[in-house]
Each structure stands twice: as structure tokens, then as C-alpha cells.
Design brief:
Layout: H1 2-27, H2 29-41, H3 45-84, H4 86-103, H5 126-135, E1 146-153, E2 157-163, H6 172-177, H7 179-186, E3 193-197, E4 208-214, E5 240-244, E6 250-253, E7 259-263, H8 270-282, E8 287-293, E9 309-312, H9 316-342, H10 355-360, E10 365-371, H11 373-378, H12 382-397, E11 404-410, H13 420-423, E12 428-431, H14 437-444, E13 465-471, E14 474-480, H15 485-502, H16 507-511, H17 513-519, H18 526-534, E15 540-542, H19 543-553, H20 555-558, H21 563-572, E16 581-584, E17 587-593, H22 594-598
């Protein structure tokens, strides 16, 4: 039955591949896309128009050819069926089925497996563990670890606590650093072996080690939806739900007095993880958000609903706004310390912000989210870059006491893109899969891989999984909770409503026309909303720059847009341009004015947000 199901599946997959290939051949889209993209990047709009016209003409020819072949094939089939009868239909069906089966066969695996692969059930014993430690050079041949607790079943694995023998000169940290060797000797993948020191607070010492060996990879499977997706509101003064460890235990992160850095390869869940702390802050109406997205994509677009400051992209004007945002934060940090310094010890005993001080003196917690930090730093000349790194370091080092939380991320945090001067003072580090130990240390800290905190052991299957370092000697491999972009958008919409009700909506979010319209239940055409997002913070933009930003946001939608196509789409939404030329930095070219775009949004949607009024009851005057 298994082979029958497999053959049926391959046939269906082959049919789908044949149809997809046929549609692709007829539409000519894949053949012309690289040419059109290259012409667009070169800003040769005449060539873009010519290529699109040529592609459409060729597509019409292929449609006619396909129609002719279909009619001819149908006629030939009918003639064959009338001549040979059902036998002809059987042969045609068999041939088509075999062809579909061939097209749908596995391309990266053998068609027939060599035989069933039986799971290996590890029965962990004290002798096995001792032999593994000896083979790794962690225990002498004539010595034996002392078991504090014997190997016992614990969830989907085996747990044991042991003391290393004295006289061997080895510590629990030495064992953790050789986790891969111990795992190999046990016959399991290193991702299945979880080792932690037992600290003095738990009755341990430098030679006591807790080991848990999973039956299989504990980080695979469907991700867990973030609890933040279903809460009415949240307080960032409480630990936030971040994910689960290998045993399925909840991992909570305390955000106050901390700073965070996220790194790793693209498309491994780095931004998803970075959004979780931000989502918690969105659900707290007394948190003020400063957001900068160096990539300029769609990942942080929902934050327009709540962000006090929002910087999109890393072009020259965006870099200038980013620097202005940092200056504003530095000034606010100084003001807050001045306020805290005037408070009596009875009110502010530790010189830090408290929930009571935050509300009483209008000092909301400030959440600073910076994604693709390297894009900003790489766009700056040397002296300006050093000055910016120093400002960020001050925010990470001093500002937490004033209620600032820095949440930064970078794909390649090397010494040039994100200097160690900044990375090394950040308290929380999270790293998804990277290519080697050096890259892992660049995110998690120098020497962390040698201590066992190594993100290079993660595979391509470990999306949403990363190594979390929360202190000099504390780390955990965590499968982050899942919150996709639509869910995050819903959270941000709700966060805006919370701020309107509390009277804390401020800055850019308070004047964002699209966010206001969506909050009022008015549907804004997608192209208009995207253009306004791409132009966030600027009054004018050249069409070429706008098209480049739109393509960066959504290449599938805007990759083949020309200036004429963009103008037509915006005109359909009601945009009336007061002029087709705009001057940006002294250069006068075709472009758009933000005021013209916002004028296409219904006037009632752009009114300043107001908190809900109290209902009038009988007896009110």
C-alpha cells in the first residue's frame, strides 16, 4: 500500500509539474523576468516597456500555437479512438500516466529505498555515559563519574545528573564544550544532547552536570503559536513568553534593564524572534516605540500603527532620519536621568525607572527596535559610523536604567558591519543557524562556541530555532514561539486601540493616515498603502526611487512595474497629482508628493485619534 500511495502521489505531482511548465512556457514570464529586472535596476524604462511588449507578443504566439496543437491532438485522438476502439484510449492513458510518473519522481532521493530504516531507541545507561566521557578525554580510564541521579526517563528522553571524578582536572564546562564528541560516542546527534551545569543555588558545584538525551531531534515539528497573539494587553515589566526549550518547558525573558541582539542567516526565523519582544511592547499602552528597518521590507510595516518614530530603508534621507532618531533618544535619556536624580530616595531608591514613576511622571518605557543594523552603519563614512556606534553603545549601556530597551538585529554582525564595541555590551543574544563557529561567536560573544553555545550545529530544518545567551555562563537552545506577519499586524492594530484609549498614541503613528484609516475600518487600496509606507517620513520622492523601494518590499507584486503602470494604478485609487515633477536634493525628476497621495484617503479617516468617550447615563447633567 505504501508504494501504491507513493506512485499515485508521484503521478499527481508529475501532472502538476507538467501543467506548471506548460503555463510557464506559454506566459514567457520566467524567460523575461531577469531581463526586465536588470533593465529596471538600470532605470532604463524604455527598455522595460519594450521587453514587456515583446513578452506579451511572444505569449500571444505561444497561446495560438498551444490552441492549434490542442485541436490537432484532439482530432488525432478522436480518429484513433474511432479506428482502434478502447485499446487506443488505454495506450494513451498508460503513456500519459507513465510520463506523469516520470516527471513526478523524486529528484533528490532514490525511487526505491534500500530497505526500511528502523528507529534506534537509545537505552541510556551509566556505563554508556562513562564510556562516552572516557572516549572524549573527559574522564580517565581508571576513574568513574559518580551518579547523583541514575538515568531515568524524562519526557521524550533520558535524564541523568553526575559528578565528575576529582583528580581528573575536568569541569562541567569542559564536558559541555565537547558535547559533539560525547554525542557521537553515544550514537546520537549533538542537537539531542542537552547539558547544563548544576549551580550552587541548586545544590551543585563546578563538577556537577545535568544531562538530558532526547529520543530524536527535539526542535522539529510544528511551531507553537505565541501566547501574545491571544492576550488583551501585556506589561513589559513582566517576563515575556519567548519560546520553549528541548523538553517543551516555557522560556520567559525579562526585558527590563536588558538589551537584545539577534543574528543569523536569512530566512531562519531571526525577524520572527525579534518581533516577539516588540509584540509584547505593542500590547503595553505605556510603551513608546522607536523603529528603524534598514531593509525597508514588509516585516515591520504593521508598526506604523503604534511607532512614535518609524524609519524605513537605508537611503540617504532614511539614514539622516535614523541619526535624528538616535539624537532624540540620547536627549531623552539625559532628560530622564535628570528627572530621576531629583526624586527622593523614598520614591526612587535605586535610581531606576519603576512602574509607578513611569506613570506618575509620564516616562513611558522606550522600546528601540532596529532591524538590519548593518545597513545603516555600512552607509556611513568612518567617523560618522564610529560616532553612531558610540551612541548605540550608550543606549545599550546606560539607558536601560531609564527605561530604554534596545532590540537590534543584523544578518552579518562582523567587525566591520556591527563592531564588537556594541555587540559585547548587549545582555541578551539570540542566534539562528550560521555557517561556522566564528559566525556564531560574532553574534553570541567571543568564546561562546567553545563553551557549548554554538549556533552552527543547527541545520536548515531548524527554522525558528536559535541559541539564546542570557548571561556570561547561561545559554539555551530555544524554539521560538510563532507569530506570523498577519498576526503581528493584528497585534499592532490592537496596540493602537489600547494607546488611543489610554491617550498615549504619539509621534508618527498619531499622524499616519493609513494606520488611522485602517483603525477606522476603512480599507485603503494596497498600492496606495504600500506607496505611502515606502514614502514614510519624506514629502517628495522620485518615481525611480519609489519603484525600487516597492520592489524591495514586494518583488512579486511590483517587480515589473513601470512608471506608467504605477501612475495608472494610483490614479485608480483616486490620486490626483498636483505636478508630475518633484525636486529632491536639488534634482527635478518625475515623482510624487506625499500630500497628493494622502488626499486620496477619505477625510474622516485622517482625523486625530480620540479616546472613546464615556457613555451618558441617566442622571448625567
Amino acid at each position: 500500500p505504501a508504494y501504491g500511495l507513493a506512485l499515485s502521489w508521484w503521478t499527481l505531482r508529475g501532472t502538476a509539474r507538467a501543467i506548471a511548465a506548460g503555463v510557464g512556457w506559454v506566459s514567457v514570464r520566467h524567460e523575461y523576468r531577469p531581463l526586465i529586472t536588470a533593465a529596471r535596476e538600470a532605470k532604463r524604462w524604455d527598455l522595460v516597456r519594450d521587453l514587456i511588449t515583446e513578452r506579451r507578443a511572444l505569449a500571444r504566439v505561444r497561446i495560438k500555437t498551444t490552441a492549434w496543437l490542442t485541436v490537432s491532438g484532439g482530432s488525432a485522438g478522436a480518429a484513433g479512438f474511432l479506428t482502434l476502439g478502447p485499446v487506443f484510449g488505454w495506450w494513451v492513458t498508460t503513456g500519459a500516466g507513465l510520463g506523469a510518473l516520470w516527471l513526478g519522481r523524486p529528484r533528490t532521493a532514490p525511487v526505491l529505498p534500500p530497505g526500511p530504516v528502523l528507529p534506534v531507541a537509545l537505552e541510556l545507561s551509566a556505563d554508556m555515559l562513562t564510556d562516552a566521557l572516557r572516549a572524549a578525554g573527559l574522564v580517565k580510564t581508571d576513574a568513574t563519574p559518580q551518579l547523583v541521579t541514575p538515568p531515568l526517563r524524562d519526557g521524550n528522553g533520558w535524564a541523568v545528573t553526575l559528578d565528575l571524578p576529582r583528580g581528573g582536572g575536568k569541569t562541567a564546562a569542559d564536558v559541555i564544550a565537547k558535547r559533539d564528541t560525547v554525542a557521537a560516542e553515544l550514537g546520537v546527534d549533538e542537537i539531542q544532547v542537552i547539558m547544563t551545569r548544576v549551580r550552587a543555588a541548586a545544590g551543585g558545584h563546578a563538577g556537577r552536570l545535568a544531562v538530558w538525551v532526547a529520543d530524536d531531534d527535539p526542535y522539529l515539528g510544528a511551531p507553537n503559536l505565541s501566547p501574545l497573539a491571544n492576550v488583551e494587553q501585556f506589561s513589559v515589566w513582566e517576563p515575556i513568553p519567548f519560546g520553549q526549550d528541548a523538553r517543551g518547558r516555557r522560556i520567559l525573558l525579562g526585558l527590563m534593564w536588558q538589551s537584545m541582539f539577534f543574528g543569523g542567516l536569512p530566512r531562519r526565523g531571526k525577524t520572527f524572534a525579534q518581533r516577539l519582544p516588540s509584540a509584547a511592547g505593542v500590547l503595553d499602552a505605556y510603551v513608546r516605540h522607536y523603529v528603524a528597518d534598514g531593509k525597508g521590507g514588509a516585516d515591520w510595516r504593521p508598526m506604523r500603527a503604534v511607532a512614535h518614530r518609524l524609519v524605513i530603508g537605508a537611503e540617504d534621507e532614511a539614514v539622516a532620519r535614523f541619526l535624528a532618531m538616535l539624537d532624540e533618544l540620547i536627549t531623552e535619556m539625559g532628560r530622564r536621568f535628570a528627572v530621576l536624580g531629583t526624586l527622593p530616595i523614598s520614591v526612587c531608591p535605586e535610581g531606576k525607572l519603576t512602574p509607578e514613576i513611569s506613570r506618575r511622571y509620564d516616562l513611558p518605557v522606550i522600546f528601540i527596535t532596529i532591524d538590519e543594523l548593518q545597513e545603516y552603519l555600512s552607509a556611513m563614512p568612518g567617523p560618522l559610523k564610529e560616532e553612531t556606534v558610540e551612541k548605540l553603545a550608550r543606549l545599550a549601556r546606560r539607558a536601560p536604567a531609564a527605561g530604554f530597551i534596545l532590540n537590534a538585529a543584523s544578518q552579518r554582525p562582523d567587525a566591520d558591519s556591527v563592531p564588537a564595541k556594541l555587540r559585547e555590551i548587549i545582555t541578551y543574544r539570540y542566534c539562528t543557524q550560521v555557517v561556522d563557529r566564528i559566525s556564531s561567536d560574532m553574534v553570541l560573544g567571543k568564546g561562546k562556541a567553545a563553551q557549548g553555545a554554538d549556533a552552527s550545529i543547527l541545520s536548515e530544518d531548524h527554522k525558528g530555532v536559535g541559541v539564546l545567551v542570557t548571561g556570561p555562563g547561561s545559554f539555551e537552545i530555544v524554539r521560538c514561539d510563532y507569530m506570523d506577519l498577519p498576526t503581528f499586524a493584528t497585534v499592532c492594530t490592537h496596540g493602537r486601540a489600547l494607546r488611543v484609549a489610554a491617550g498615549t498614541l504619539s509621534g508618527d503613528a498619531a499622524t499616519d493616515a493609513v494606520a488611522a484609516a485602517e483603525a477606522a475600518g476603512i480599507q485603503i487600496p494596497t498600492v496606495l498603502a504600500d506607496v505611502l509606507y515606502a514614502m514614510h517620513g519624506v514629502e517628495r520622492m522620485h518615481t525611480s526611487t519609489l519603484l525600487a523601494r516597492l520592489t524591495n518590499m514586494d518583488e512579486d507584486t511590483y517587480g515589473e512595474f513601470t512608471p506608467e503602470r504605477l501612475a495608472e494604478e494610483l490614479e485608480r485609487t483616486g490620486v490626483q497629482r498636483s505636478g508630475r515633477q518633484v525636486k529632491v536634493e536639488g534634482v527635478n525628476l518625475a515623482g510624487y508628493r506625499r500630500a497628493d497621495l494622502e488626499a486620496a484617503i477619505p477625510a474622516g479617516a485622517t482625523l486625530p485619534p480620540q479616546p472613546p468617550s464615556e457613555p451618558v447615563t441617566e442622571g448625567d447633567g
